[in-house]
Amino acid sequence: MLNGFYRGFGYIKQSTKALTASDYLAAITPQKDTRDIHRILKSYLRKNIETMVKLPAFHEHGTLF
């Protein structure tokens, strides 16, 4: 999610350190932002809140989590 909109999904190895906002965004495979995806993500996060990692604000991009 970037600024409240679903951008897509991606994978980054846990051993990767010191990523920039651009690195995170480059790892995302773009997908459509739909009402259904918001419902699915909201349900998942409600049940698995401990898995969510909120990343610091990216000044040029907004907030990514």
Overall description:
The protein is of the alpha+beta class and 65 residues long. It has one domain. The protein contains 2 helices and 2 strands; from the N terminus they run βαβα. The protein has helices at 21-26, 35-47; strands at residues 8-10, 28-30. The chain has a two-stranded antiparallel sheet with strand order 1-2.
Task: For the structure shown, list the relevant keywords.
alpha+beta; 2 helices; globular; single chain; 2 strands; two-stranded antiparallel ribbon; 65 residues; 9% strand
Number of helices: 2
Oligomeric state of the chains in view: single chain
Strand order of the largest sheet: 1-2
Report the sheet-strand fraction: 5-15%
Distance between the termini: 5 Å
Shape: globular
What's the order of the H and E elements? EHEH
What are the segments in which pLDDT stays under 50 over at least 5 consecutive residues? none
Whole-number mean pLDDT? 81
Largest sheet report = 2 strands, antiparallel
Which range best describes the helical content: under 10%, 10-25%, 25-40%, 40-55%, 55-70% or over 70%?
25-40%
Radius of gyration: 12 Å
Number of domains: 1
Give the class from helix and strand content and strand pairing: alpha+beta
Count of beta strands: 2
